[in-house]
Write a structure and sequence with these properties.
homodimer; Rossmann fold; Hypothetical Protein Tm841, Chain: A,domain 3; 2 domains; 6-stranded mixed sheet; 8 helices; 32% helix; globular; DhaK_dom (chains A, B); Dihydroxyacetone_Kinase (chains A, B)
């Protein structure tokens, strides 16, 4: 894949320099390290929310730092976890005494580093940190009831950020913001499809191969193996298969409400995302499921992968309230802040 | 290129169905024809602003219909002009007595159909229509002074929409909204680079070929030939070449201000767009040009083409005011409306 970049080893830092130059009203870095990104407008007394993970998923994570959503994030190299020290730096900067909630995807490297950061924040700085690990990819194996979640975190984390951010901005305390984040995380399910691979800049060749007439249902956002590979099918067939898997995993009663996110993975045009949204609507309507709100676009990408994912968040009145709350970040604006 | 679609002949209408289902608060269609899109919230007494052109450029045009920007648009098939009848339908729906301004890109098919629609609106409906044709692609040939503009309209039209929309929303009359649109159109310049072709769904094969190690500087958004084809260079080299061509075409004095749009053409990740924004900032700083605001992302695409464009809008106090005005559309939100 051709890339418009300079030296691959500078890819992430130069991207970050561009973000800081383009959005000075929204974000700055905590300390010298460009990879520790925090909001320009710390809100005193509010629970801080931090996230992080590997680069290569823009607008995740950086694009959601701002009013009503996140207060900071730390990023690693492309598809690499940031360090515990980075997370600690962000944590120190965003805590104003009310504690900090970490929300991150269910990947071993991130879990290891964020847990260590939480421990350091508590021991060294006296900052109370709680954690919510988001994992909602229906294509990855499900743990037995009561066991630790084994599913990958993908695009549905957007909903977790949005609801938790709404709760924190409403002045809720740490335990309550955590409860809302957990509720959103447990109510969301995602399924994806990939048509092409993507290339990590420092690696220089695609992470996998896929034939010109094939697709892979359920592939993860770092190219993790999906459920099945087959001939490319029609948008309606693909959407039906993906949505059935989601609805089997988290059944809806007729009359229940959902928020829907149709997310482009990088190279797939918005046109195709809307064609899929149309079919999602038809299927949900047939089942009596009301769509409270649609989000269509690139929310969580895999560099230049072609493909998309569908996420459904099951809603109740409480989550609807937090979903409706205004937000203003470089990549997500809603309502009047 | 693989596409997530159903029958190619339904591509545009199914995309439109998705848009109407996803954004009912923002847009609806005028009459039965899905391809005549209008705002759900007509503002009485305001000058109406309409645009249109071929599909395949989302979020252009549909994504900019809403408060503070456009009131309607008509679209054709992918890369095909809409008909004069469609434009007339949109015009009738959005006129509330203050007249309608058409803003569209400098392409023969669009000019022909929009001029006919303007004539029909005047003759048959008594609606006063003015027109501004946006053409700012520095890579296309420039007409002699005083001659009709021969340049292609590309991503810079976003700035024309934004400023004209600000003026119309401020209650300016038709001649004044037209003057502002013309001023924005004459102050903006764009240069693009393409790395891969794109495929019109009904055609089924790419519009051109380009080698795996090549780029084309100055290619148009429908694959029109650019200025030169060569080996893929670094982001800094590409940015420098593109920006020099823009700054030679519309010179800036030290201390003058610009708005900058770094626009992804479809398959190019945001990361790369920010790497380019970083270099744009360095070059403008060296020349003493102040950047008033950055816009980075996919604003005007070419289906799944890889590449990007840089647009500069030269600002004065008047344009800054209209650029700052709040807007709320499916794809562009700014400030509190």
């Amino acid at each position: 894949m051709k890339k418009i970049m300079n030296a691959p080893e500078n890819y992430v830092n130069e991207m970050l320099e561009g973000i800081y130059l383009a959005h000075p009203d929204y974000v700055t870095h905590a300390g010298e390290n460009l990879r520790c990104l925090v909001t320009s407008k710390i809100v005193e007394g509010k629970v801080g929310i931090a996230t992080g993970g590997g680069s290569g998923h823009l607008p995740l994570f950086l694009g959601y730092v701002g009013k009503g959503m996140l207060d900071g994030c730390s990023v690693g190299d492309v598809f690499q976890s940031p360090s515990a020290e980075q997370m600690l730096e962000v944590t120190k900067r965003i805590d104003t005494g009310a504690g900090v909630l970490y929300i991150y995807g269910n990947y071993n490297g991130d879990i290891f580093n964020f847990e260590m950061a939480a421990e350091m924040a508590d021991m060294e700085e006296g900052i109370k940190v709680e954690q919510v690990v988001a994992g909602e990819d229906v294509a990855s194996p499900q743990a037995a009831p009561g066991e630790k979640n084994t599913r990958r975190g993908v695009a549905g984390i957007f909903f977790v950020y949005k609801c938790a951010g709404g709760a924190a901005t409403a002045g809720k305390e740490l335990s309550e913001v955590k409860r809302i984040a957990e509720k959103a995380a447990s109510n969301v399910r995602t399924m994806g499809v990939a048509l092409t691979p993507c290339t990590v800049p420092r690696v220089g060749y695609p992470g996998f191969e896929i034939a010109e007439d094939e697709m892979e249902i359920g592939m993860g956002i770092h190219g993790e193996p999906g459920i099945r590979r087959g001939k490319l099918e029609s948008a309606d067939e693909i959407t039906t298969e993906m949505l059935e898997k989601i609805l089997k995993d988290i059944p809806y009663e007729s009359g229940e409400e959902a928020a829907v996110l149709v997310n482009g993975l990088g190279a797939t045009p918005l046109d195709e995302q809307y064609i899929v949204a149309r079919r999602v609507h038809q299927i949900l309507k047939e089942r009596g499921i009301e769509v409270y709100r649609y989000y269509v676009g690139e929310y969580v990408t895999s560099i230049e992968m072609a493909g998309l994912s569908i996420s459904l968040l099951k809603l109740d009145e409480e989550l609807k309230g937090y979903l409706d709350a205004p937000a203003d970040t470089p990549f997500f604006k809603q309502g009047n802040v």
